[in-house]
Amino acid sequence: MDHMLAQIHLRLGDLEEAEHLAASSVRIWAEGQRRDGAQARVTLAALHATTGEAAGAALASAAIDGVDGLQSSRAFHTLDPLHDALAARNSDLERRIMTLTAPDTSA
Question: What's the domain of life for this entry (predicted)?
Answer without folding.
Answer: Bacteria
